Amino acid sequence: MAYCADDGTTTEDINRYVLGSTPRLKVITIDTEGEPFEPTEARLSIKDPLGNIYTYSGGDLTVASGYLYTIYHPQYVGWYQYEGWVKDGNGLEDAATKGFEIYDLVY
Fold first, then answer.
1. 2-103: CATH class
2. Taking the CB of the first residue and of the last residue of the chain, which one, N or C, has fewer CB atoms within 10 A?
């Protein structure tokens, strides 16, 4: 099973970031017993507010203990959606989708 998470927010709401922030987007992989595993294949696709889709896989993703991630540099204000996809050693596939908002902080 895969699920997505983001962290490093500068506000109280976990899925909102100020323009110029660099959210760490994670793909967390948990097997049926709840244990983390390293997938045989993984990718993370991000759709920006303009509709552009960027996909990270293989060496584009950093492997950490129990998850994979990329540090993303959003360029536009608006809603971003991302999907993590993984495949395990048995050929089983799973995907999860999440989103976040980038806003411009005006002083």
1. mainly beta
2. C
